[in-house]
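hey can u run this one w/ pyridoxal-5'-phosphate bound, need the structure tokens asap thx
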Amino acid sequence: MSSSPLPSLPDERGHFGQFGGRYVAETLMPLILELEREYRRAQADPAFKAQFEDLLQHYVGRPSPLYFAERLTDAVGGAKIYLKRDELNHTGAHKINNCIGQILLARRMGKTRIIAETGAGQHGVATATVCARFGLPCTIYMGAKDMERQQPNVFRMRLLGAEVRGVTAGRATLKDAMNEALRDWVASVSDTYYLIGTAAGPHPYPELVRDFQSVIGKEAKSQLEKAEGRLPDLLIAAIGGGSNAIGLFHPFLNDESVRMIGVEAAGRGLDGPDHAASLAGGKPGVLHGNKTYLLQDDDGQIIEGHSISAGLDYPGIGPEHSWLHESGRVDYRSATDEEALDAFQMLCRSEGIIPALEPSHALAVVRTEAARMRSDEIVIANLCGRGDKDIFTVAEALGVDL
Amino acid sequence: MSERLSAAFRKNRAALVTFVTAGDPSAEKTGDILDALVEGGADVIELGMPFTDPMADGPSIQAGSLRALKGGMTLKGTLEIARAFRGRHPDVPLILMGYLNPALAYGPHFARDAAAAGVDGLILVDLPPEEDAELGGALRGEGLSLVRLATPTTDRNRLPAVLEGASGFLYYVSVAGVTGTRAADTADVAEAVGRIKAETDLPVAVGFGIRTAEQAADIARIADGVVVGSAIVDLIGENAADPATAVRNYVTKLSQAIETAA
Ligand SMILES: Cc1ncc(COP(=O)(O)O)c(C=O)c1O
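ok here u go:
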């Protein structure tokens, strides 16, 4: 690794090296440019920052604890394991951090309607939540197949006043929901704000989602400083589109001594087609407004991802991760459905915390990595969601009939 | 710009620009359908490159794209269809239209191979001027036109950026929306076309939402080209056994209406 600090990215055209950019239909371009201008104004406005922080504290419940997982540490037998407890946030995942930031942006832009895509339903619930909080109507696009798998979240969104539209186009999962949200947006640009749920999409979304999620890493840094008086040795986070991971990693990118591992979903194994590991099994291409690693065939047709976790089975990854992968700053690994299920159960029993299946992928790698480290070394894992939404999936995987 | 393409817009009436997807419903039938378009009086052919995620398309063209992919169509196969078309119709301009990713996946020789197949230009829906460097230079280097899109959201400040590097013709998307939805108000379109023509010498073709012969005639009176896509793709979907005949009859009506409007 070079000793000079990493360049500040994205560049003014929204590129992270060869990745990122703004690959959208002309109809959307003026709006995307306007979003960027408004985001720059918001960044320079102390009132915006103050309102964001106030809502994170009083509405979301931040800061989330940085918790020393003593029994997990003992069980693994290596480095000290800390968990960044974003699963304790209002709505149960990190997704709300981003939603608070973006709803404030939407209001600044005078938009009166919100749309979003959702896979597992976590981002849909978080979006429906902030829309209820600010009295804005919202439409959530969700693959018809995902609606079946995630009934409780569909009902939650409806309770919160959202309209949930099932998407039957394509393969009826997350990427198709994103296509449909983009189609809605093209036809409603004048009054509608598209609240993207991960650090992907056309510039400036990857940047602003990262910035809003960076509260995770900033808090973790100062919390660990207080607890241990030093930086962590290793950060580990799961990757769907990459927003919780970039939120944890970004404030540490220039701290050279800190290693980072992003964990993609290996599904039923990387040797077959049933996984969602875009970096390990994909190649660079253009989808949903950005250039990034994508699961695709030789003809450039997009391949559907698979993971036991509905929040990870996206065939792409945020462009900044593609850049961090190619630059070598972050190490990307993967965990299978089975490894994630094992880690899920281990956390339940060792710490009394039921994690979501997404961070269970990170925990699977925590087990193997921490075991190889010395007991005076420190690992922070991002516990980015709680497992309530997943109990039916887990029961089914364990052969239990609820 | 290719001589074929400029000639198509030099006629004393608006050019009829027709879209179908390569491989919908099969490679062989696409050949017949393309011949039917020409026989029906189409002046410019837009051949869709199927993609799994056509984000700017409505249900009709999505369905056409999926039919083509199901039949195994690829970008290589699309270029073969183009090459065969060029052999049968040396003078009819052919534009490929679609999304960037299959072209990128094809590799660095895409522009060269497209030119060699007799393609005259490309429309890439998700390649705005801001990302021109991705493929624009390579296409122009092979003498291919890069047809740019302007929309109701393209304001005065932005139009010059769209026009810079545009060639062949300018495609005015008359509705803020996906393909195959409602039609635009003709007066609004006339105003927009006037605004664009004040800034460029390129012919301006208008598309999105044009289905009937009357609509085609209305647009023919105010623009240099009339683009019809979803309506033809629907006909192909509805007439699986003999799509070419249905397409020929329909396009003949459109071209007659445009002729009469002149
Ligand atoms: C709890 C949780 N973690 C992670 C993800 C994946 O998204 P990202 O990689 O953007 O954090 C999701 C998405 O639904 C989620 O619900």
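Chain A has a mean pLDDT of 96. anyway lmk if its weird
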